[in-house]
Amino acid sequence: MDDTLLMIPGPTIVPKRVLDAMAQPIVNHRGPAFGEILEETTAMMSEVFQTNNPSYLLTGSGTAAMETAVGNTIQKGDKVINVVGGKFGQRFQQITEKFGGESIEITVPWGQAVDPEIVKSVLEEHDDVKALTMIHNESSTAVVQPIKEIGKIMNDYDSLFIVDTVSSLAGDTVEVDNYGIDVCLSGSQKCIAAPPGMSAITFGDDAWNVINKQETPNYYLDMKSHLKYFKKDPSQTPYTPSVSLTFAMNEALSIVLEEGLDNRVKRHHIGAEATRNAAEALGLELFAREGDRSNTLTGIKMPEGITDQQLRGTMRNKYNVDIGGGQDHLKGNVFRIAHMGIIGLPELAITFTCLEMTLKELGFEFERGAGVAALEETYIKYQ
Amino acid sequence: MDDTLLMIPGPTIVPKRVLDAMAQPIVNHRGPAFGEILEETTAMMSEVFQTNNPSYLLTGSGTAAMETAVGNTIQKGDKVINVVGGKFGQRFQQITEKFGGESIEITVPWGQAVDPEIVKSVLEEHDDVKALTMIHNESSTAVVQPIKEIGKIMNDYDSLFIVDTVSSLAGDTVEVDNYGIDVCLSGSQKCIAAPPGMSAITFGDDAWNVINKQETPNYYLDMKSHLKYFKKDPSQTPYTPSVSLTFAMNEALSIVLEEGLDNRVKRHHIGAEATRNAAEALGLELFAREGDRSNTLTGIKMPEGITDQQLRGTMRNKYNVDIGGGQDHLKGNVFRIAHMGIIGLPELAITFTCLEMTLKELGFEFERGAGVAALEETYIKYQ
């Protein structure tokens, strides 16, 4: 129905193998065939999270998993540090406040990562902080946050470390157990390259200790129901799951593990470097601060005098390439190119070729071919 | 991966056309191609609900829609009448209580429908009842509830009428506007015959008036977020939706409307009558009370001396036919055959042929062929 090249930061291109797996006939979600698939899938999920704890698949989008993370741990009056440097950081804060948490915001300028020393000082300043929430890869700003360093700091405090890896897991390094992450969540439709509609979450012992002691006001996303089923039989979910998306996740995670997590992360890093080099070779300016730039998508400042409608509209309507726009106050000022999931040299070649054609057409000056040349050079460097 | 004939009450068999539609490449959920599909799908959804109000697709299972219905309307201390005659009626009550509602339970014996006069008397007895919840088709007991009659009664009261039609919509008559239903929800994986993982909900003005005046404690299922997006642009959802399941729902609802709602409901009624006649011709006893029996699935008492493992195990392992067991205290005492979605004469012929073979093997006495003969006779009657 649509042969547009999908270069937005999720949903991303889904391999044919995954689409085919998804289209298998439906099976009984309480039967042994599905149970086997589910157990295999959640085991692969834990492998990708790099945790020894079980993982749970949720039939719902990434936001459902964010709510699951916060709603099961935060209660009225709990102090929560929310690191906010973009739209998804804000969403974690909104969910925290919806559940009655008292938000201590660490405001980070959009385009920058948080300074771990600031996190440390805020933790020192407040006792009895129940949790800290953080977006590993803030896709609204194309920034990656230093979760490893923050994890080390968090080790000295009792607060739960809640990390959203929706747009980083399987594309950048996430070591849940090594980093001391207590609650980690992700989505299906980014670096894992499955269709949207499913999310995953895992909890450490400290998180379960909190969860088991309290009640969450919601029902569908109450993890105690999941745990109850899981303890009886790990092949069961409390409510009818998305059977087809479980098939898809199973296949997508198999592909991730066939490639190997390290290889896949390295491939994402190369795609990111190539994209940054290509953009800069065209004289474009990157949005995120150097050193804080995401490995799964790149934010680029809109050149002066060119509108979002002109640039992204031409890319989409004339060249069938769909790139991301800016979000909230970055609307019109930034565009975003994803290099997540299976996106590699071929897709970036198409994208930068068409971006060059579009920019020339809009009167932006640069040496024709320079962007693609930079792509080539970056990829050659890693051969 | 599994060629078992799926005769359980959901997820049900999904037509190849729907599986193929689901396997289409992913598109941008904020782009015009998806927007068109979403608007078309929700419009068809409203047509199937028989309402002039908009419908909303939720990326979540039927339970997510049940929580959406209750969580957006019921607040701490609100009086709610819960009609409870099976597992799903209980779930509505649990969700009501989770959201702080004060449940007034109308207990209905499992296997029976509620008497509308009792509903009337309970409404008379209590003022300021905020809402009444009811499962149209209680799949745990294979009973259909008189929502039309209850709707007429509810007309005289201010309470919201909240109806779950997860296992009836598109298989039995549901006229949301005519029946005066204020909140109606359904699922993808039953009579609509799409894969599980998506649900739908619609609200009348009285429901919106309540919703807009209050806050719900949850986030992902907060309808005010959906409404905000919808008002700006009906082709947008607040969070990344399940794109593939939207494709699937679009195709499944197209099939429903090509067949015609009335034809489809009539076909379900014939399947139900044929199943009941076939079961009784074998000397089996139906579980639900006469007159209260579901048109989308049939509950049959387990013959004495035969265990669930023997009957359903043989059906599944020897004949590759998966039928439903009993739920909760009906486990082992009842088995359930679905005739929902695309299930018709061919699937029932296989099922009853294999059921006859299984029952004979287990020593149950009946005239061989009598079940299938009753199926034939019923279908011939309606030719």
Topology:
The structure is a homodimer of 383-residue chains.
Chain A: E1 5-7, H1 16-22, H2 32-49, E2 55-59, H3 62-71, E3 79-84, H4 87-98, E4 102-107, H5 116-125, E5 129-135, E6 137-138, E7 143-144, H6 147-154, E8 160-164, H7 176-179, E9 183-187, E10 198-203, H8 205-213, H9 223-232, H10 243-259, H11 261-281, E11 297-301, H12 308-317, E12 321-325, E13 334-338, H13 345-361, H14 370-381
Parallel strand pairs in A: 1-12, 3-4, 3-5, 5-8, 8-9
Antiparallel strand pairs in A: 2-10, 6-7, 9-10, 11-13, 12-13
Helix pairs in contact in A: 1-10, 2-10, 3-4, 10-11, 11-14, 13-14
What is this structure, in a nutshell?
The structure is a homodimer of 383-residue chains. Chain A has helices at residues 16-22, 32-49, 62-71, 87-98, 116-125, 147-154, 176-179, 205-213, 223-232, 243-259, 261-281, 308-317, 345-361, 370-381; strands at residues 5-7, 55-59, 79-84, 102-107, 129-135, 137-138, 143-144, 160-164, 183-187, 198-203, 297-301, 321-325, 334-338. With 383 residues, the first copy, chain A, is α/β, with parallel strands linked by helices.
